[in-house]
Design a protein that fits this description.
CATH topology of the largest domain: Rossmann fold
Number of helices: 13
Domain Glycosyltransferase subfamily 4-like N-terminal: 12-177
Protein name: Glycosyltransferase, family 1 (GT1)
CATH class of the largest domain: Alpha Beta
Number of domains: 2
GO molecular function: glycosyltransferase activity
Number of strands: 13
Domain Glycosyl transferase family: 179-335
Shape: globular
Length: 364
């Protein structure tokens, strides 16, 4: 099978990790693979290094920003590639690649579009949401199948009339592989870890403010990731005089090694789909505290706390877990059980490749 994957950015995040896992499995199944990105980064670097037979193409005109000239060039370049490759399936990831890719693939190959959170999800501006819905309705006839990574996004797509019998959608949860990391032999203080890019919609700032108010002054916060809001968060920690307890470690490749030593895994955000960072927390058997937005409530039931983006509410939940080791252990065990039942990489890959085969049958 010839598979072409398209994603806007070649760096690293939840969507990129998801695409990497799909490509890894597709290579093992002896498929011919192309990946097209709008930029280079960890995703493109690792694919070139680990899977040298995968064709990696970078299109500078495939960018997140709306630009008529760049977008038109991206459509033309992509269409040229699609015509040359003649893929059996084109699998698109991220909103911009999903838009440009579907236009470029018109009457060439069937398109599967994975929704890693709709561009009109709860939390975005009304103007942006209305525009995104209008664009998505125009693109609906060009979509063979939708994959939603959360029930929340699936229900939202149905509500907006974007999925139907002719252009159906299905829920395939993100999944991660099981890995075991050892705790450090010596742990000096309780620790919270949040792994996320310092950019909209993430709210590391609220977590930093909460740390300053928590009564246990031995608590440390580890923030993994980088991005345009990193400097502002560092300045906030300095202004609150807690810079010695907030550790900005940048982008790392071994998030779960840090989770292994964490007492609590957290994600504070204004909107989300189904965050892989939380699924990795489940796989690490940790209690989770996260914002009650998007599909996060599918990941947190009796294994942690859902919070409003309120400093006081964050403080209360953190202190409750810190003061109760048995509760932390019980919630951590429930996290791992949830991971094993619903969010393994094997289950995600099996469902995705079954969908590929069903689309191929329709194509014939």
């Amino acid at each position: 099978m010839k598979l072409v994957y398209v994603i806007t950015q070649g760096g690293w995040g939840g969507a990129q990790a998801h695409v990497f896992d799909l490509i890894s499995s597709a290579v093992q199944l002896n498929n011919q693979i192309w990946i097209i990105c709008g930029s280079t980064g960890r995703l493109t670097d690792e694919i070139k290094h680990i899977f040298p037979k995968v064709h990696v193409i970078v299109l500078d005109d495939l960018c997140r920003e709306v630009s008529f000239s760049h977008d038109l060039k991206a459509v033309m370049y992509l269409r040229r590639i699609f015509r040359r490759v003649k893929p059996d399936i084109i699998h698109l990831h991220s909103a911009k690649a999903g838009t440009i890719g579907r236009i470029a693939a018109y009457h060439i190959s069937p398109v599967i579009y994975t929704v890693h959170g709709w561009a009109f999800t709860t939390g975005v501006s009304k103007k942006r949401a209305l525009l995104a819905i209008a664009v998505e309705r125009v693109l609906q006839p060009l979509t063979a199948r939708y994959i939603c990574v959360s029930k929340f996004d699936y229900n939202l797509g149905i509500k907006k009339g974007l999925m139907n019998k002719r252009h159906p959608g299905t829920v395939i949860h993100n999944g991660v592989r099981k890995e075991v990391f050892q705790h450090s032999l010596i742990k000096k203080h309780p620790t919270i870890v949040m792994a996320a890019r310092f950019d909209v919609p993430k709210r590391q700032d609220l977590l930093i403010r909460a740390l300053e108010k928590i009564s246990d002054k031995s608590l440390h916060l580890i923030l993994l990731g980088d991005g345009p809001k990193l400097l502002a968060c560092q300045e906030l920690a300095n202004n609150l005089n807690i810079e010695n307890r907030v550790h900005f470690l940048g982008s790392v490749t071994n998030v779960r090694e840090y989770y292994a030593d964490a007492d609590i895994v957290m994600l504070i955000s204004d909107y989300e789909a189904l965050p892989i960072s939380i699924i990795e927390g489940l796989a690490s058997a940790k209690p989770i505290i996260a914002s009650n937005v998007g599909g996060i409530n599918e990941l947190i039931q009796n294994n942690g706390f859902l919070v409003a983006n309120s400093v006081n509410e964050i403080v209360q939940c953190v202190q409750l877990l810190l003061e109760n080791r048995n509760l932390r252990n019980d919630m951590g065990q429930k996290s791992f059980e949830m991971f094993q039942n619903e969010y393994t990489e094997r289950k995600m890959l099996s469902k995705t490749f079954n969908l590929y085969n069903s689309v191929m049958q329709i194509k014939r």
